Amino acid sequence: MENPVKDIKAVIFDLVASESSDTQQTAVHRYYAPNAGFRNPFVRVDPGPLSREQILGIWQWYRILSPKASIHVENVVYDKPHNILLVDVTQEFHLFFSPLESATSRALTRLTLTEDKGLYFIALQEDFYEPEGVAAMIYAPLASLTGFTLRTFASISNLLAKSFQVLNYWRPKKTGIAYSEECTERRADSYQKPNGNVDRSKNKRSNRSKIADVNVQLPKLAEQEPGGVDSDKPGYKYRHEVLLDDKGQML
Q: Most buried of 2, 134, 150, 237, CB within 10 angstroms?
């Protein structure tokens, strides 16, 4: 890839939803490093010799299982200093032997890239799925059951936490909805001045600021000059940076 952010959508489409097995094979050989790694909830390929060929086999089996697979890239974030590409995707996966409708799942794909002669290659692919998405890809009705199970675990967690807090274990000094609302109000007030204007110290992005160098005259300290401060002598000078708004006022 010459431009990972721009090219990744086409790369993912060729891997997941291409109409030709030759196109898919070319995409794997063109965009993955020869010793690339691959990890997701279903399979794992460790980086090493011929690992790219194993990744190709995984993608081929994916298309065999779901001949009408489709995918949509929702968002792409590129961490250029670390050569990491984060891709938020939504895909439709339908087992060819299943009479049920296709299942929709969402995943966050983390691609670690390597650069060679100005081109970027995938060195490691890691797919992170929501639990419901994993269940849906196996058997669509399991997604609802998985969601119910997770909500049940959430309720049990709250019940157990309250039970232990009755025994004074890990119990905050202040609790309850009233205290939560109080914290919310405090957070909102911290961004407001008494006259209702937004505090620019908390929202400096909305102001155009300038950096000025100011030479400030400071009197000598009494303990440094016996007998007190001598106003006839110049004070110390130092360089100080301040933020000024459009009117030249100090922020």
A: 134
Q: What is the pLDDT of residues 40-83, one digit of tens each?
A: 999 999 999 999 999 999 999 999 999 888 999 999 999 999 99
Looking at residue 120, the DSSP 8-state letter turns out to be E
Closest residue by Cα to residue 134 from 145, 120, 123, 121: 145
Tell me the one-letter amino acid at 42.
F
Owner of token pair 């965009």: 31
Residues 184-241: tens digit of each pLDDT? 777 776 666 555 554 555 444 444 444 444 444 444 443 443 444 444 444 434 344 4
Angle between helices 4-16 and 21-31 (to 10 degrees): 140
Question: Residue 111's closest CA among 169, 188, 15, 36?
Answer: 36
Cα 175–Cα 177–Cα 182 angle in degrees, nearest 5: 85
Which fold would CATH assign to domain 4-138?
Answer: Nuclear Transport Factor 2; Chain: A, (3.10.450)
Distance CA 23, CA 239 (A): 62
Cα 251 from Cα 249, distance rounded (Å): 6
Beta bridge partners of 76: 87
pTM above 0.70, yes or no: no
Cα–Cα distance measured from residue 99 to residue 152, given in angstroms and rounded to the nearest whole number:
29
Strands of 52-118, DSSP E: 70-79, 84-93, 103-116
Give the start-to-end residue ranges of the domains of the chain: 4-138, 140-170
Give the Cβ contact number of residue 8 at 10 Å. 23
